[in-house]
Write the structure tokens for this entry.
Amino acid sequence: MKNNKGFTLIELVVVLSLLGIVLAGVLTFLGYFLGVFGDTKARTIVQDDVNNVLRILANDIRSATKPDLTYKSIVIYKANDESHKGDRIDIFDYKNNKYYLISYKYENNVLYRGITDAETADHIVKATVKYSVLLEGIIHPSESELFETDSEIFEDLTSDPKSDRRTIKINLIAKDKEGKIKKPVVISATYTSRSKGAP
């Protein structure tokens, strides 16, 4: 009788084929979970960035003060015209004997923020602001099916136009720069200014 030690060529081919099928399944499964992890990580980063922007905006809106008795503490602009909805918001503040203008504007998928100060109300109302990038990857609400076509980033919801307190809604839709997330982060928030009157 022959003593057969080892594997035949057919046995080796069958085992290697089965091993290849199992490895392909494991790698596919692993690749899927790595993709989900990458999407979740990128989404978390974008969500943190949007929340930071909203925190800054909330602080500015809540501390808004009218620069004088004839001007609102918060003004929204649509294409440089004052409106109740728009892509630019000017927030006035008064502290430490100085007037401040904090302005946010949306342009080409970027949200900008600028701040300037002046000694008098007349100067702050006419002041110009130098903007810097606050957040990239912003999608305008009118470009998304998640909002109505006439939606804007900034909306004044104040029911009484003569009220010193302003209620502002902010609609932010953001994606990551690298395009890793499949669905954009969408957050709407509403803030009301606390201050009343002019200094």
Notes: The mean pLDDT is 88. Residues 36-192 form one domain. The longest helix spans residues 9-62. The helical segments are 9-62, 121-125.
